[in-house]
Amino acid sequence: MARKEPRKAKDIKLKQPDRSGPTEKTLLDIARERDLFGQADEREREIKRPRGGGGGDDDGEEEEEEEEEEEKEEPPVLSPRAERILEALLWTVSMAMLHLTFDVLVQHQYGEEVNWRSVYIRTGRAWAVFLLLFYPLHPHDANTRLLPGLPMRYQKMLWQAVFFVMSAVCGSYLIHISNTYGYLAVMKQAPPLGVLWVWSVIELELAWAVASLAVAGGFLWHGGYKLY
Hints:
Low-confidence stretches: 53-57
Number of helices: 8
Shape: elongated
Radius of gyration: 36 Å
Number of strands: 0
Protein name: DUF7719 domain-containing protein
Strand content: under 5%
Mean pLDDT: 83
Transmembrane segments: 158-176, 196-221
Region (Disordered): 1-78
Keywords: Membrane, Transmembrane, Transmembrane helix
Largest sheet: none
Domain DUF7719: 160-227
């Protein structure tokens, strides 16, 4: 059978599309004839209407508004002090886990066998210290004043200054002991210092955090210390 050659574009006649409407009833026409849209609206109003009779849609709207107002007026589940305590526990437990990790890593670095009982004891003691530091120093809605008597406009700056000093001191001292002290002193002091350094940087705003890290970097460079 001979293969037909494809028709060229110039040989194809152009035609206008059929713009005539449908000759039979459409679904939209049938729905209008049976008043399906009206029935749907009526059904929706019946669903929204409060049970047990009443004044209709207006009463339902009023009840909804009253319920929303009652929800807004409900007191919070926890008091600000309870939220502050729970937040402190959550943060300090995470810090204690980080301390445990640093403790194990330092012992592995010096080739020491990990004594898990001692690690857990040191972690528990560190958690207690972290809690005592975190509770008064961490900003919270229930703790808006770090220094009583100081105007509120200076409180935020004071908080940032405290964490800036903590970050710079902890970072610089950690660099110092890692390069000059023996391994026993490093294993004992490095984990808590590392956790406090991380926490203070997290509490700082970006500019303050970068500045505190720059101080630690300057201390590293000026003292001729090494990172390893």
